[in-house]
Inverse folding.
């Protein structure tokens, strides 16, 4: 039997959830909804008596102070009468979508001493009050109350007969795909219909392999090859050949690049050869030296396509995935903080400008932020650094970067599975979730993506992952396993395949714990169900290992063993379903050569009006979406859990100034710490991806310097998100950006330690393709010897001197200032690495010697934004003379000086008594710097033109409001 | 258990996540904290009676599914109720932070018996709750607090302390006016949100809309304290959100006193 329980607030209690939904509806422009009430519905199946249901309602479901319940036996109870003046909509998860609350609820029922509950399904009932036209109701249901990929509207809740997920009726038989007799055309068809995303050449290589064997592949074998060879897992573009055509000094040149990754990113790291790099590019994350006891590892991933379709679930599982990368680095690291960078279309994009099948950017942004908040906060990992960028071209394809930093004991970095070790899968159970995630992210999105690929979308269970983390750390410290890796894209197929690639492995898929029966063997093998990891456990330690996991209520199951056969052997119900040679699987991918072409875009220098109201322009630049305060987002993240934070995302006496980087001291009680920061700018890339890459490296590095980090102890990560690399112009930009990465890394002697690429970020509609602007995220981590010497960006004391450090050039190309005129400009900011190195080193020394009271880097919005932010964050005024700013350019136009985004620049606050020491230190190192003004006690913000007249004369509160308002939702 | 030590049990379960920093705070104050999974208590591998201070730290126990703290509250009440009663009856200390506070309120441990009748029966049901913030969202922000009441935990705190809150369900709501009156009369209110000078707060100074600006309460003995803000996150000076503007004033922050108080009380009364 099924009991239905409805929980709602008592009259008079403020329904915050309902109010939030009312506001979301208002955001759609629908004003007819006056009030929203939310009822939580629990359906419970099982033999439970009425007194027991009442007990469950009273003691588990209902908070007696604020809530009330009603419960019904679906077979016998009369239906409650619904209020007449409102629309009632009930929304539930689709069958098969995992809802973690159900498991906790069953536990809660057992704790009450009530037996017999077999299944729980939740739903939410929305009461919408007001004269709502039916058309509006449809929009509300589809845009606010549900996402049809994972949810549905329950038309008649009383008609439910069972809550159990219907088991598949598919009986077991080994399926073989006829490949060896297939013609080329048929091969392409097989690839497309099976969502394999393999091209003809690759399909032919597979056909040749099986022809030699004289048999056809099983579906499972074909899927395994497709997963392993997917762009997502194999990075074919970066590791393949590229025929690159470009223009240099007026001549067209071509060159063949063999392995772009090795010839740029990895090459830089090898040349720089820092002794503190412990493990680079081969594990799940890069590892660098940190303290006597621990190393630090850092990884950033993307989760773009799932976030486009189901923003909450996409971001949620994105965070979960990158955390598992950290758990799976070496023998397992403990995550200590997270980073998040997002790119969306502008939040005010009109609905009629959205391509069909896409979600509104504001909906995406809210969902993504909620997804990060839910997973990061529940895992107890502080989210400490990030950025949000807006550009119209992200409309069909938003970007979601998730990063994680971990601490790993120095003797836990090396791992290797050995012959005879058992294959153990731990964590969540396997279901039909996320099938084809790896191959799905290796293709473009289309209007149909939301229906065809819905299996690739899931929501996460952070508590499951937290339990796994707790158990894993204990097992690690007891030395109970020989190797570990995470189940990410490709699921068991890639995790087990990777771990066994040098050995061989044999797995019985029938032993994998399942969420529900009826899964086909190939589904078990490639499912991307979240919160799972694979361990290699010596047989002598298996008992102890299983006890540790049981102690934290985490499932662990032995599913096979590592062999020395060099083969991948899979069995199901006693029959072999896969028999592949590891060498073919990992090295059989035919090398491809892609065409790349780079041509500088035709640009013209902008003509700006001669006289500009810079008061208004400064406010406009501060209020630009890429510059303005992201407090609404950041406040929702717990950025202090674990107690390690030293410099938080917000600084200043009101905790609302934008910190350049976050500083953490993760070994509690020690003053050794690290800073994390990032550099990203898509507008420079529209002019030249080479200088975009260099600027991103410069920005990430100077933010570390701005909090007092040591530039010679910084490591960086690269994350490329690009359009379709099969199109030569897209790939040309990518090559150029990778070359910029190489130059900048070598120029600054900062090694790359890890990276990732996400290609095919295009959205196709009516055969027209919208590519994202090529986007490079550089994430930086810098070791800080003594965090008590770090500085923040807020002005501290009236009377102190304001210094400009570094030279400003006429480089308005791609600037926020030009964007306020709707222009891109021409002169993209370049980087003088020799000069930059000096600026960074000298400032780092000045901070260490205590000569700097506050320090801020000049990024988007240039000097104007940096000065304004320092002033209003510190609650102090400022007076500044543009005439004294170190500047090289044609004419010293005040708007150019104020808003040019030249690299390697800072604003520093120095006490009058330290003036000499500071200037000497910088000048001796050959660093251009000049005192340009002073911090004021009055809240006035005054900037004087070269001719001495004030060109900006306003109040810091006015500027602060302009900066805070746009994203204060 | 070692004689002469102040033994602190920091209770963990699925979704606990502020356990390590709470342990660090107690350790620095000279106590011996031990992280114990609730399974270890249920299986009697570890005995509650061997400890002097029970801490339920912050986190999202069982995902805060159904509502925050509810599932662990029931588990404590129904499966460890007797041990807990004996522990508190022995005059020992208990501290709940954030999710731990939510658990204690929902288990009826706080505010606990409000008058003699209830005390005799050892039976206090849930008399207050913590619900969704008025802002409708999770917020991490620093709040000024005025310590009030006479709890052993809050002795000697400065007039206004500064701790971060990080929660979505922190709005304190008593059952009715009678309960609120009793809380005030009994001196059970331990912390109130306030403005930076100790005056009446407005949002976001009161970050969640709590009734009477209540941020934390004790039982009638003052030995059991629960609060939404995180004193363990202002244990060190460098955890202060704008320490770079302040003169260094020792290594410790405003929250350290609370942990010191607990440890000292055990030394003076229970060892």
């Amino acid at each position: 039997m099924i009991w239905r329980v409805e929980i709602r607030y008592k009259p008079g209690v403020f329904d915050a959830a309902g109010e939030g939904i009312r506001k979301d509806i208002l955001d759609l422009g629908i004003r007819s909804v006056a009030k929203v009430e939310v009822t939580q519905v629990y359906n419970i199946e099982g033999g439970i008596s009425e007194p027991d249901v009442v007990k469950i309602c009273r003691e588990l479901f209902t908070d007696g102070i604020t809530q009330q319940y009603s419960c019904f036996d679906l077979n016998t109870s009369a239906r409650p009468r619904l209020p007449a003046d409102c629309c009632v909509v009930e929304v539930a998860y689709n069958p098969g979508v995992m809802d973690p609350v159900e498991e906790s609820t069953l536990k809660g029922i057992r704790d009450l001493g009530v037996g017999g509950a077999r299944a729980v399904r939740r739903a939410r009932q929305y009461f919408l009050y007001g004269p709502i036209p039916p058309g509006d109701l449809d929009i509300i249901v589809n845009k606010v109350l549900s996402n049809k990929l994972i949810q549905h509207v329950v038309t008649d809740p009383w008609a439910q007969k069972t809550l159990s997920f219907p088991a598949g009726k598919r009986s077991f038989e080994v399926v073989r795909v006829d490949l060896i007799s297939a013609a080329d055309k048929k091969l392409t068809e097989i690839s497309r219909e099976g969502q394999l995303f393999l091209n003809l050449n690759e399909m032919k290589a597979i056909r040749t392999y099986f022809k030699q064997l004289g048999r056809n592949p099983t579906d499972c074998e074909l899927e395994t090859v497709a997963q392993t060879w997917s762009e997502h897992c194999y990075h074919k573009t970066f590791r393949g050949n590229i025929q690159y055509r470009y223009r240099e000094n007026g001549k067209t040149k071509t060159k063949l690049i063999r392995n772009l990754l090795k010839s740029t990113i990895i090459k830089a790291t090898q040349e720089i050869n820092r002794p503190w790099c412990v493990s680079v590019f081969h594990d799940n994350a890069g590892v660098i030296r940190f303290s006597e006891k621990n190393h630090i590892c850092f990884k950033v991933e993307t989760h773009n396509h799932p976030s486009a379709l189901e923003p909450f679930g996409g971001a949620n599982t994105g965070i979960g995935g990158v955390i598992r990368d950290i758990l799976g680095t070496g023998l397992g690291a403990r995550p200590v903080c997270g980073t998040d960078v997002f790119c969306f279309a502008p939040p005010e994009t009109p609905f009629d400008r959205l391509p069909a099948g896409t979600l509104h950017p504001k909906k995406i942004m809210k969902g993504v932020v909620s997804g990060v908040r839910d997973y990061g906060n529940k895992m107890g990992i502080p989210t400490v650094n990030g950025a949000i960028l807006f550009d119209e071209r992200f409309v069909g394809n938003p970007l979601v970067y998730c990063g994680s930093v971990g601490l790993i004991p120095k003797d836990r970095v090396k791992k290797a599975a050995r012959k005879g070790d058992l294959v153990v899968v731990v964590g969540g159970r396997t279901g039909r979730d996320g099938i084809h995630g790896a191959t799905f992210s290796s293709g473009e999105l289309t209007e149909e993506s939301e229906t065809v690929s819905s299996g690739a979308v899931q929501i996460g269970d952070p508590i499951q992952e937290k339990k796994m983390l707790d158990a894993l750390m204990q097992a690690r410290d007891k030395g109970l396993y020989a190797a570990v890796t995470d189940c990410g894209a490709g699921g068991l197929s890639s995790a087990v395949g990777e771990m066994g690639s040098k050995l061989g492995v044999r797995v019985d898929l029938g032993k994998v714990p399942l969420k529900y029966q009826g899964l086909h063997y190939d589904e078990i093998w490639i499912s991307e169900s979240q919160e799972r990891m694979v361990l290699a456990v010596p047989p002598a330690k298996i008992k102890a290992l299983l006890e540790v996991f049981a102690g934290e209520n985490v499932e662990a199951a032995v599913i096979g063993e590592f062999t020395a056969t060099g083969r991948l052997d899979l069995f199901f119900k006693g029959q072999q379903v896969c028999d592949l040679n590891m060498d073919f699987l990992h090295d059989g991918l035919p090398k491809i050569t892609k065409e790349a072409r780079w041509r500088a875009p035709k640009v013209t220098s902008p003509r700006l009006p001669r006289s500009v109201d810079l008061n208004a322009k400064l406010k406009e630049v501060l209020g630009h979406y890429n510059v303005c305060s992201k407090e609404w987002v950041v406040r929702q993240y717990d950025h202090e859990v674990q107690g390690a934070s030293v410099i938080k995302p917000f600084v200043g006496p009101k905790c609302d100034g934008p910190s350049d980087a976050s500083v953490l001291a993760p070994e509690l009680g020690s003053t050794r710490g690290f800073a994390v920061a990032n550099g990203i700018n898509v507008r420079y890339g529209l002019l030249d991806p080479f200088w975009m890459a260099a600027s991103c490296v410069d920005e990430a590095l100077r933010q570390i310097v701005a909090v007092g980090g040591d530039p010679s102890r910084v490591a960086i990560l690269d994350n490329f998100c690009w359009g379709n690399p099969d199109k030569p112009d897209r790939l040309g930009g990518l090559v150029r950006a990778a070359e910029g990465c190489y130059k900048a890394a070598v120029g600054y002697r900062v090694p790359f330690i890890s990276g990732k690429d996400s290609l095919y970020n295009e959205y196709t509609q009516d055969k027209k393709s919208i590519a994202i602007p090529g986007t490079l995220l550089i994430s930086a981590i810098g070791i800080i010897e003594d965090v008590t010497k770090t500085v923040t960006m807020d002005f501290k004391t009236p009377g102190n001197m304001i210094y400009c450090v570094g030279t400003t050039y006429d480089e308005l190309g791609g600037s926020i200032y030009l964007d306020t005129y709707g222009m891109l400009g021409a002169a993209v900011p370049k980087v003088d690495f020799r000069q930059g190195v000096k600026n960074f080193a000298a400032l780092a020394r000045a901070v260490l010697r205590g000569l700097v009271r506050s320090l801020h880097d000049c990024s988007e919005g240039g000097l104007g934004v940096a000065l304004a932010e320092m002033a209003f964050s510190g609650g102090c005024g400022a007076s500044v003379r543009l005439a004294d700013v170190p500047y090289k350019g044609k004419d010293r136009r005040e708007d150019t000086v104020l808003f040019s985004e030249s690299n390697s620049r800072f604003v520093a606050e120095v006490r009058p008594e330290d003036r000499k020491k500071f200037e000497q230190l910088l000048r001796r190192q050959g660093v251009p710097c000049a005192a340009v003004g002073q911090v004021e006690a009055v809240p006035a913000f005054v900037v004087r033109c070269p001719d001495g007249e004030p060109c900006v004369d306003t109040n810091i509160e006015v500027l602060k409001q302009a900066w805070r308002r746009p994203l204060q939702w | 258990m070692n004689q002469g030590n102040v033994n602190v049990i920091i209770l963990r379960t699925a979704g606990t996540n502020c356990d390590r920093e709470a342990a660090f705070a107690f350790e620095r104050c000279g106590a011996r904290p031990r992280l114990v999974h609730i399974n270890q208590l249920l299986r009697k591998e570890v005995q509650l009676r061997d400890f002097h201070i029970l801490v339920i730290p912050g986190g999202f126990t069982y995902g805060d599914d159904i509502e925050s703290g509810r599932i662990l509250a029931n588990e404590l009440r129904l499966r460890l109720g007797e041990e807990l009663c004996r522990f508190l009856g022995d005059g020992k200390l208990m501290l709940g932070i954030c999710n731990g506070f939510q658990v204690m309120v929902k288990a009826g441990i706080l505010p606990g018996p409000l008058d003699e009748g209830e005390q005799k029966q050892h039976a206090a049901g849930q008399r207050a709750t913590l619900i969704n913030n008025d802002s409708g969202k999770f917020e991490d922000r620093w709040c000024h607090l005025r310590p009030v009441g006479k709890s052993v935990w809050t002795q000697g705190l400065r007039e206004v302390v500064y701790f971060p809150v990080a929660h979505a369900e922190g709005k304190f709501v008593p059952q009715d006016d009678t309960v609120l009156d009793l809380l005030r009369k009994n001196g059970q209110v331990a912390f109130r949100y306030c403005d930076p000078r100790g005056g009446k707060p407005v949002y976001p100074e009161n970050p969640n809309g709590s009734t009477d600006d209540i941020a934390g309460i004790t039982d009638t003995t003052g030995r059991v304290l629960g609060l939404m803000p995180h004193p363990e996150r202002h244990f060190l000076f460098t955890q202060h959100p704008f320490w770079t503007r302040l003169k260094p004033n020792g290594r410790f922050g405003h929250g350290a006193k609370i942990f010191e108080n607990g440890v000292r009380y055990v030394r003076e009364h229970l060892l």
Residues 2-159 of chain A form a domain with the Mth169; Chain: A , fold (CATH 3.30.1280.10). The first strand of chain A starts at residue 2 and ends at 9. Chain A touches chain B through 66 residues (CB under 8 Å).
